[in-house]
Amino acid sequence: MRVTARTNGPISIAYEITGTGPLVVFLHGLGGSRMSWQPQLDTLSDQFCVGAWDSRGTGDSDDPPTELRFSDFADDLRHLLDHLGVERAHLVG
Q1: What stretch of H or E contains 25?
Q2: CB atoms < 10 A from the CB of 92, how many?
Q3: I need a surface site. Which of 43, 55, 67, 77 has the fewest CB within 10 A?
Q4: Which of 55, 53, 56, 59 is nearest to 23 (CA)?
Q5: Residue 80 sits in which domain range?
Q6: Do 14 and 79 touch, CB atoms closer than 8 A?
Q7: β-sheet with 3-6: strand ranges across
Q8: Which residues pair with 35 in a beta bridge?
Q9: pLDDT by residue (tens digit) across 28-84?
C-alpha cells in the first residue's frame, strides 16, 4: 500500500512510501520533487520498501523559515528516518 504523509516538527517534510523490505530513499535534485521518482517507486516496490521525499521548500514540504543551509537537508533526512523508525537506509539521488 502506498502512503503519502508528512513528518511532524518545526519543518514538516512530505514523503511517499510503499513496498516491503530494505528501505531505499530517493532524493531529488534542484527543481525536482518526490514525483520525479514515481517510475522507480512503481518498479521497485515489489522488492524493497521505497520512499521519496519533497525536500524542504519543494512540493508539499514546508518552506525554510531562514536561509537554507546544505546541512538542513541532512537534518531533514535524519528526521524522516527517525519518523519512519529506521536506523539505516539505502540512498539514491
Answers
A1: strand 23-26
A2: 13
A3: 67
A4: 53
A5: 3-92
A6: no
A7: 3-6, 14-18, 49-54, 23-26, 90-92
A8: none
A9: 998 899 999 999 999 999 999 999 999 999 999 999 888 889 899 999 999 999 999
Alpha helix positions (H), the chain: 38-44, 70-84
Residue entry with cell 546541512: 71
- CA-to-CA distance for 20 and 77, rounded, in angstroms? 20
The three grid cell numbers given for residue 6, joined into one nine-digit string: 508528512
Q: d(Cα 9, Cα 17) in Å, to the nearest integer?
A: 19
Q: Please give the pLDDT value at position 48.
A: 97
pLDDT at residue 66, rounded to an integer: 85
Q: What is the CATH number of the domain that holds 65?
A: 3.40.50.1820
d(CA 54, CA 35): 8
CA pair distance 59, 30, nearest whole angstrom: 12
